[in-house]
Amino acid sequence: MHSTLSSNDDAFVKSAYESILARSADPEGLADYVDRLRRGVPRFRVILDLLTSPEAKFGGADATAIEDILAFYKKSKQTTPKIILEYQLKNKYSSRILEFFYESLLKLRGARPRSPIGIAEDRPTVVASPDPADDQSYAGTLRKAEAHLQRLYAERANNPSADALADTLGIHVPRWVGVTNATKAFFPYTFPVPLTSDIAPEQLTENQLAAITDVLVDAKFSQLVFSGGDYFQYQIATAIKSRAPQKIIKVIWHGSPRQLGPHYELDPFLAWVNAARNGVCEAIGTVKPGMSRLFSALNVRCHFLQNFTTAAQPGERNDLRSDTVGMWLSHVDNYNKPAVPTLFALSLNKKHLLQGSGFGEDGIRLIHKLDISHKSISAYTIPHAEVLKGMRTSKLTVYITLSECMPMVPFESISEGTPCLVGPSTRLYDDPFLERNLLVQNPFDPVEISQKIDNALKKYDELREASISFLDRSRSRSKSNLLTFLE
């Protein structure tokens, strides 16, 4: 979450006063708004109140506009800036109050201001045109993006195919490793945005966004699938559709219902739902069955797309001399993937040997304090190739999650010949034998987890064979579902 919105209520109100009224908050106003926030009033309500105050000095048409916005806000019961943007686009408002309102919200989020007005009055795009003052960034991004597409065109020419995949471009965020791997498994032709993993999406400049949008508008792929569903992807998709209505826009949503609380997940979710309803997005795919049901309940065309890998069939494994357990995390206290109970479970049997990555400094300290036997552990994430190598040298991968789990880790683990123990939030396996032996019912019970680990290691050969058979069935279903999604 951006720093300002994640700060305390006192700091938020002070920032709101400075951003909107250009002065420090008076003691009475500060105390009043802090009290409201602590009683549950949304923060965007505070912004609206300040914007409609006499001190904001907006009058005439602006005053009428903001009263209309406020009424629309109350009616919709929404709290995101997209509501204002959509209202403006639908009702042809272009007054400065709308732009000021939107930019104020973004300033309070710690983000760069981005105009909701678009390039022209009749072009409802949220991606700005290139800024001549920063043409080098635009030109450089354009050159790199076009070079990437040229490589894809050459590859496609060498591998002709008549199916929908040949005319589809999968767009992903390279920094999101799991989503990137899933995207590359789904689609033979993929396009990274940002262009490199060292750039976070929020660091993209207006010129970089404009360059990427221009390239994708002219890309020789009739279907663009945004994988991930980030809000900036929605912005690009909206801009492309306004300029190239013939382009088919779709999205694959990788999140789960549990993740819809924070604004950085809820905002893009609502945006894509609206995009699907207004024709910008023709269909939504999801890798979580629960999300598929939710989208369908919202009357949005949705397809369940189970992840899969393109790795070759696992070979024979004669190099496993110990009961090695692998854990491949992003952080030990991740609220979706709590590792602490599993670490306590591993401490109950000293014969098990732990290897893994992404534990964080606290996780490494806990491993040492619990005296867990280990051979290779890292506080930080490691390259994907190293993760796969670690999976190959483990007898069991443990990936117990609270959020609905249809990620790449279990599939990649099985593709490397290693069974994977998962949590109760989803029914990953279609085989009763696998579900009975590789599903933890209580993800917070170290004793149950320990017993499941012991049992899985004893039945390694049987579980490995059954897991590989499951992977083959899963791949077949996934490819069929993917082609249906692209029709």
Task: Describe the protein.
With 487 residues, the chain is α/β, with parallel strands linked by helices. The chain folds into three domains: 3-108, no CATH class; 133-304, Rossmann fold (3-Layer(aba) Sandwich); 324-475, Rossmann fold, CATH 3.40.50.2000. The protein is built from 20 helices and eleven strands. The strands form two sheets. Strands 2-1-3-4-5-6 form a six-stranded parallel sheet, sandwiched between helices. Strands 9-8-7-10-11 form a five-stranded parallel sheet, sandwiched between helices.
Beta fraction? 5-15%
Rounded mean pLDDT score: 79
The strand count comes to 11
- Name of the CATH architecture of the largest domain: 3-Layer(aba) Sandwich
Portion of residues within helices: 40-55%
Distance between the termini: 36 Å
Number of helical stretches of at least 4 residues: 20
Largest sheet: 6 strands, parallel
Uncertain stretches of 5 or more adjacent residues: 1-7, 76-98, 105-136
Query: What Rg is obtained from the alpha carbons, in whole angstroms?
Result: 25 Å
